[in-house]
Write a structure and sequence with these properties.
heterodimer; A: Aminopeptidase; 3 domains; five-stranded parallel sheet; B: mainly alpha; Non-ribosomal Peptide Synthetase Peptidyl Carrier Protein, Chain A
Chain lengths: 530, 75
């Protein structure tokens, strides 16, 4: 992959020269087209004249705007946020510099991000680890115009590779957690339910913070699992009876608490959850266990575990940065707060109607069915990564995977839903694989949980079937693949009138259907196939 | 590892080349450009726990001058 970097300082020590070329300092006149992606990495220059400096910073917006207009919109464009590496707060007007920096960053987040291929990187996330003194090395700056201290190049490269991993949306899905000396201090079998270190003073407090942080990660869609050599009954007792326990059985999607080797346990859980080993991160305080997993399951990420409980929170931060962060803030994410509010209003309305149908009718629901395109592709990939409950097969795809399937002739649609309370945006998708001239298979079908309960899943798939029928498709095949979370979809295809032709030992169900007549859809959905 | 070997190892890393000998200089090595020169200086500072002044960095234009400067700093 080749990269072109727009910059106003020397940044070669941080990006090297393998496949990387650079603009002149502050130069936007040349925008090469023979590269695979672009990076915009401007830094706040050094200028003691705050007013002049602020003006220069404001001009970066216009420059960036011009560049974005002239680059190929299909190529990734990564923008670093601006950070004032050497703030000179001598006088009151220094605040104008801060404002200019904030204005640039706001401009990027609010206006630029949302464009499909433009992504935003919080450079402050890197610089906040260092003091002003360490961020700028004046000797090197004056010799080479390298404002960011070249001595941070090694740290920068490892941070940047984590960011790039996130940018590729290859984020991990699942944490496999040990228990003793990992989720709490001490050994449950020896110290007892009340003897383990959790809550209260240090070190118990450190483990409480760590568990709370992990709970937040779970609330954000990361799957937590347990793999521990312990007696299951002891652990259940600790979950039930230790008052400081934050993470309990209900927070774990799978558990293996036994005396088997961890390698087979982890393999087992990957199967149970229907996720790849390469989407798992194994956390264990025991170096021997870590080494075994590293050797036997090289696809699983195995970070070192901190020696001291007070290092757990920095360790947690590192985990999030390396494995669990998403870098493209989609429009959907920004809309969420509003949608939650609208959902609350909807719930209060629900009580006033005699039956669900009359309530649903009152919603004036509009369902737009949109073929996948460059605008909705990131959202479609994101949904396959995040959706667990209403997800018939739980197959995870990156943006590149989705694009590849489109190129192979698959039909991929998403649905966008709005009603009189607000716009829920893109909240469902279906992947159809052509199997024969008149036959298609449903590879994936999922709906975000925030639009469930309104029959939209039926309306969505029925509309798709009716449309395919008009196009000459006569046969549909589909699967239900059970996971820990998608039980509510187990009978979805039966309800739709499909024939279940076989059931595997693991509960997977296989369906067929002849599209010999149009499926009736409730008339209160206003459906638009684009 | 003696000083010569240590410096050669750092140069290999910084310049990104395998074949390097004690007669390497800015003149005969294309990859020893001005930017890598500064990276080299930075790496030498860290490896030997010394501070090099800009004037000194500018003088270190070939292998023997680098070693000479390091010996002076380390003594």
């Amino acid at each position: 992959m080749t990269t072109f970097i727009f910059r106003n300082q020397t940044v070669e020590p941080f990006f090297g020269d393998e496949g990387v070329t650079y603009s002149g300092y502050g130069d936007i006149s040349l925008v090469p087209s023979d590269v695979d992606r672009y990076i915009w990495f401007y830094q706040v220059p050094v200028n003691a004249n705050a007013v002049q400096l602020a003006q220069e910073i404001l001009s970066y917006q216009d420059k960036l705007d011009l560049v974005l207009k002239s680059v190929d919109p299909h190529k990734p464009f990564i923008i670093f946020s601006l950070v004032n590496l050497f703030p000179l707060r001598l006088t009151g007007d220094a605040v104008t510099v801060d404002h200019a920096v904030m204005a640039f960053n706001r401009y990027v987040t609010e206006r630029v991000v949302g464009a499909t291929h433009v992504k935003w990187v919080d450079f402050g996330d890197f610089t906040s680890r260092y003091s002003d003194v360490n961020l700028v090395n004046w000797k090197f700056y004056l010799m080479s115009q390298t404002l960011l201290n070249p001595k941070l190049a090694h740290d920068f490269k490892s941070w940047w590779s984590g960011v790039e991993r996130g940018l590729a949306l290859q984020r991990k899905k699942c944490l496999v957690l040990d228990l003793d000396n990992t989720l709490w201090g001490g050994v449950l079998g020896e110290d007892g339910v009340d003897g383990i270190k959790l809550g209260g003073d240090y070190p118990g407090k450190a483990f409480s913070y760590w568990q709370q942080a992990l709970l937040q990660l779970a609330n954000n869609g990361v799957i937590l699992t347990v793999c521990s050599k312990n007696n299951e009954a002891d652990v259940q007792e600790a979950w039930d009876n230790n008052p400081f326990m934050v993470l309990k059985r209900e927070h774990f999607s799978a558990t293996r608490i036994n005396w088997q080797d961890k390698v087979s346990n982890i393999r087992d859980m990957a199967d149970e959850l229907n996720i790849g080993l390469d989407s798992m991160v194994f956390i264990d305080d025991n170096p021997a266990e870590r080494e075994l997993v590293k050797q036997m399951l090289p696809q699983v990420e195995v970070p070192d575990f901190p020696d001291k409980p007070h290092q757990l929170m920095p360790f947690f931060k590192g985990l999030v940065e390396r494995y669990f962060r998403i870098y493209a803030v989609t429009d959907e994410d920004r809309l969420k707060t509003q949608q939650y509010r609208a959902n609350a209003m909807r719930r209060s309305q629900q009580a006033r109607f005699a039956d669900l149908d009359s309530y649903l009718e009152s919603l004036s629901m509009q369902l737009d069915i949109i073929p996948a395109d460059e605008h909705n592709l990131p959202r479609i990939a994101q949904m396959t990564q995040k959706t667990n409950q209403f997800n018939l097969t739980t197959r995870r795809y990156s943006e590149a995977d989705v694009q590849q399937r489109i190129d192979e002739g698959w039909r991929i649609y998403c649905m966008s839903v709005k009603d009189r309370f607000g716009d829920n945006g893109i909240t469902g998708t279906v992947f159809l694989e052509p199997l024969d001239w008149d036959k298609m298979g449903i590879d994936s079908l999922l709906l975000s949980c925030r639009v469930l309960g309104k029959g939209l899943e039926d309306a969505f798939i029925a509309s798709i079937f009716n449309q395919l029928r008009l196009e000459g498709v006569r046969r549909i095949v589909a699967d239900y693949l059970p996971t820990a979370k998608n039980g509510q979809t187990a009978n979805f295809y039966d309800r739709l009138g499909m024939n279940c032709v076989s059931v595997d030992d693991d509960g997977a169900k296989h369906y067929e259907m002849d599209l010999d007549h149009a499926i009736e859809i409730k008339n209160y959905y206003n459906i638009n196939i684009l | 590892m003696n000083l010569n070997d240590k410096v050669l190892a750092i140069m290999r890393e910084v310049f990104g080349i395998e074949e390097i000998s004690t007669d390497v200089s800015q003149k005969n090595c294309e990859r020893w450009d001005s930017l890598r020169h500064l990276t080299l200086a930075s790496e030498l500072e860290d490896a030997f726990d010394i501070e090099l002044e800009p004037e000194e960095i500018a003088e270190m234009t070939d292998f023997s001058r680098v070693v000479e400067k390091l010996n002076e700093k380390l003594s």
